[in-house]
Design brief:
mainly alpha, 0% strand, 202 residues
């Protein structure tokens, strides 16, 4: 059972997630957060020294959500590997489609980076790098032939393609893309990269 301090921290993060998703980093005020949480500023600052620290805490939970879905806890069996990334990508698409705040928060993160918020730019790069390194290890174990990449791209570059593609799907699913369309697009990319195939044009 959580103690009251942990409960307060979780409450702050939950409220902050909604505000950051709805209004972005700059549009979110500490005053609005403490008012909704029924806390004093001192209570909030006890857990989070500043707004950026609170933003990092929200991002950490978002990253863990993605990792929980996309990263296998145990090594996959060889016969399961073909469907690993297809199935997990589809699960991620379903999860974000059910969570409007998740999609909005992801878009705001990109917007804050474009606006030039260096701290958030650095956070985005750190998150991206950590996922690339994690999936590099997984793919090298499951697909030894990808050690040196494919199609003139390194393994890291291939993973970045996956990462950027799924980020685009997350941003567009429910707007310009239906869920089934997003899943078909994801399956197509994974199959083409991991299994290859004949070119479409001579």
């Amino acid at each position: 059972m959580k103690d009251s301090g942990q409960d307060t921290k979780a409450l702050i993060i939950s409220i902050a997630r909604e505000h950051f998703a709805e209004k972005g980093f700059y549009g979110t005020s500490i005053d609005a957060l403490v008012k909704e949480a029924g806390l004093s500023k001192g209570a909030l600052y006890w857990h989070f020294p500043g707004k950026l620290d609170l933003y990092r805490a929200v991002i950490k939970e978002e990253v863990e959500r993605i990792r929980h879905i996309m990263v296998p806890e145990q090594p996959e069996k060889p016969e399961e590997r073909e469907g690993l990334f297809i199935a997990r990508g589809e699960q991620l698409i379903d999860a974000v489609m059910k969570d409007r705040l998740w999609r909005m928060f992801s878009v705001h993160m990109a917007l804050e980076s474009i606006r030039g918020n260096k701290e958030i730019q650095d956070l985005n790069r750190f998150i991206s790098l950590s996922f690339v390194e994690e999936f590099e290890s997984i793919l090298m174990r499951m697909y030894p032939s990808l050690k040196y990449g494919a199609g003139g791209l390194s393994l890291k570059e291939l993973i970045q393609i996956f990462e950027n593609f799924i980020a685009g799907l997350v941003s567009n699913v429910g707007t310009t893309l239906f869920v089934d369309e997003a899943k078909r697009s994801w399956k197509f990319l994974v199959t083409r990269v991991l299994k290859g195939g004949a070119p479409y044009a001579p």
